[in-house]
C-alpha cells in the first residue's frame, strides 16, 4: 500500500531546507569590507606589505581563505590586510584588476608580488604572504 505525503508537509520541508542553506551560506564569510583606497595608496607609497582578499559571502572557498587570513593577520602584525566583498565593491575589483572572488593579492610597496586564486592550503597562502616581506 502506497502512502501519500500531503503537499503541505513536502513544501514545509523544502522551505526548511532552503532556509538552512541560506543561513549557512550567509555565515560562510564574516561580512566585512575594510578596504580603504587612501590607506592602500599610502601603504604602497611607504613600501608596506599589503594583502588584499577578494571574497563573496556565499563562497565556501572564500570562507576557508578568510579563516586562514584572519589567523595570518594575528601573526603578521606589520602587514596590512584588506578584505572586500567583490559583489558589493566592483570598483575595488576593477581598480585592482581582480576578476574572481577567491583572489588573494600580495603587494610590497607599489609592486604586486603574487596573486593566487582559489587557494585554501594554509602553507601556500602563508608562503605567498611571506614573499611580500
Task: Name a few traits of the molecule.
133 residues, alpha+beta, Glutaredoxin, four-stranded mixed β-sheet
Describe the protein.
The chain is an alpha+beta fold and 133 residues long. The protein has one domain (37-131): 3-Layer(aba) Sandwich (Glutaredoxin), CATH 3.40.30. It has helices at 7-26, 37-45, 60-75, 90-96, 122-131, and strands at 49-55, 80-85, 103-108, 111-117. The chain has a 4-stranded mixed beta sheet with strand order 2-1-3-4, sandwiched between helices. It is elongated and about 70 Å long. The chain starts with 6 loop residues before the first helix and ends with a helix.
What's the CATH superfamily, by name?
Answer: Glutaredoxin
Q: How much β-strand is present in the residues?
A: 15-25%
Shape: elongated
Q: SSE order, as H and E?
A: HHEHEHEEH
- What is the CATH topology? Glutaredoxin
CA radius of gyration is 19 Å
Counted up, domains total 1
Spatial strand order of the main sheet: 2-1-3-4
Q: Name the helicity range.
A: 40-55%
Amino acid at each position: 500500500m502506497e502512502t501519500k505525503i500531503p503537499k503541505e508537509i513536502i513544501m514545509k520541508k523544502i522551505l526548511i531546507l532552503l532556509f538552512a542553506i541560506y543561513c549557512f551560506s550567509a555565515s560562510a564569510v564574516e561580512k566585512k569590507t575594510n578596504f580603504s583606497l587612501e590607506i592602500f595608496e599610502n601603504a604602497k607609497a611607504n613600501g608596506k606589505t599589503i594583502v588584499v582578499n577578494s571574497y563573496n559571502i556565499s563562497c565556501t572557498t572564500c570562507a576557508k581563505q578568510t579563516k586562514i587570513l584572519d589567523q595570518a593577520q594575528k601573526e603578521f602584525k606589520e602587514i596590512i590586510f584588506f578584505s572586500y566583498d567583490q559583489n558589493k565593491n566592483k570598483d575595488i575589483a576593477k581598480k585592482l584588476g581582480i576578476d574572481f572572488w577567491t583572489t588573494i593579492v600580495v603587494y610590497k610597496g607599489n609592486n604586486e608580488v603574487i596573486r593566487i586564486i582559489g587557494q585554501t592550503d594554509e602553507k601556500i597562502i602563508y608562503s605567498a604572504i611571506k614573499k611580500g616581506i
